[in-house]
Amino acid sequence: MGNGASILVVEDDAAMRDLLTEELGDAGYEVKAAASAAAGLEVSRAERFDLVVTDLRMPEMDGFDLIRGVMALPEPPHVVMITAFGSIETAIRAVKLGAYDYITKPFEIEELLLVADKALGERGLRAKVARLQREVEATYGLGNIIAKSQSMRDVVSLVQRIAGSTASVLVTGESGTGKELIARAIHYNSTRAAGPFVGVNLAAVPEGLIESELFGHKKGAFTDARADKPGLFVEADGGTIFLDEIGELALPLQAKLLRVLQEHEVRPLGATKNQRVDVRVVAATNKNLEAMLADGSFREDLYYRLNVIHLDLPPLRSRPEDIVPLAEHVLRELGAKQNPPRKLRLSPEAQHVLLSYHWPGNVRELMNVLERCMALCQGELIADDDLPPHVRERRPADFLGAAVARRMSLAELEREFIERVLEDEGGNKTRAAQRLGLDRKTLYRKLEEYGRVVGETEAEAAPPVVDDRREPDRAEPPADLPRSTEATVPIPRVDPNADEFD
Ligand SMILES: Nc1ncnc2c1ncn2[C@@H]1O[C@H](COP(=O)(O)OP(=O)(O)OP(=O)(O)O)[C@@H](O)[C@H]1O
Ligand SMILES: [Mg+2]
After folding, report:
1. Would you say the pTM of this structure is higher than 0.85?
2. What is the tens place of the pLDDT at every residue in 11-42?
3. What is the number of the ligand 1 atom nearest to the C-alpha of 363?
4. CA 140 from centroid of its chain's CA atoms
5. Which domains are assigned to the chain?
6. CA–centroid distance, residue 171 to ligand 1 (Å)
7. Ligand of minimum distance to the alpha carbon of 148
8. How far is the CA of 328 from the centre of ligand 1 (A)?
């Protein structure tokens, strides 16, 4: 007890005042005393107290006036009122005015100590909650989301626009693009911000436990259910539930989740009644849910329920404008946490390296790279060779990375892929079409679009041209890129409507 909290005792009876002051002091509190409500109010204006213990009946100004006075202070203390035995009405009035609790005369000193301890404990908790709340708001405030690129600015503006809505949101994007950050931002910038944000990673909960985790259970519902458990939907009542990795949810559970979303009610395992919940759902995945709809591993009706608002987070490599601002943001945050704090800057060469890399792990990977830099770099300036070798190696390691670096459009990518597959099949269009999942007529039409005019011989067919659309100021693609111009394939003369055209 005690732990240095400060208490003001306000009591006109000198003997009682001295007793309370002494006992509370012995319990480890810092205690001051005032002989009247007016004097008490004056000291509590001059210095901050955690708790005021006051008598009710005092001449001139009484305990009620004191409560009113201290409640108007910028940081009001908790108040415990001492009332006469049997006057429950005065106790109620005191609590209504803002007193934390009351004790009735006569009382044991132990009783007072207990109430004081409880009041101060609650006060500490309240202060902690308020601090955490401020911290959380600072972290997930929109100002903390780095969004220089148009695509991220669009995301942030959508988050703002949906603040007042309770519609479900589906957040998609590659791993490390900021899905969880956005999910929290949606909550903390919404009208439900004061309610709870409850997150669950569905990939991390064993399948057999998901139902009770989400919807709760009654004691005895299954062997390990030793007590009632409310479940995350109930915990999130009035707030937001974040269903991360929604693509991992098994089909039977998808059906149960759908029912909850439709009915706004949950039924804990083993319960006989449904419970109403008011919860906003934000789901996230890095899986391609449309592909899962197509192969039947994700329910279409659930998909449409979750996907009322869709936020697709672009990969970092497609928004290079964000890379340096993000890096600077991360360096600032990491630097402030060091002891002593550090201020690191990126050399222009290091910035260039960061901009050339393809960031398969997106923002999270960028953070890890910078954390490593911070540990290794001695000075204030991060040079390019402070960056890990695989990042410095500017060649995009994969075909898609190369395609991105070349700023290819989807149509160009498709064309290149089709031509590569055709080449791989030795020019056999039937097999190529099969492999591509296209019917032959479609493939034929596409080849025609590419300028492989049917009816021309191999020599006459114009080679496909890809690079002439690139703007002159863009960097040359690295030498190891797949080049469709090298893949000329013999195009025999055929009739597109004929059954066999190879
Ligand atoms: N635009 C941004 N501004 C500031 N920080 C960001 C931004 N995007 C992501 N981050 C930070 O990057 C890290 C990864 O983000 P987050 O965990 O939200 O990604 P994710 O998409 O959920 O990843 P995963 O798919 O791996 O779960 C977090 O520390 C997050 O705060
Ligand atoms: Mg995540």
Report:
1. no
2. 999 999 999 999 999 999 999 999 999 999 99
3. 12
4. 8
5. 6-132 (3.40.50.2300), 146-314 (3.40.50.300), 317-394 (1.10.8.60), 407-486 (1.10.10)
6. 12
7. 1
8. 15
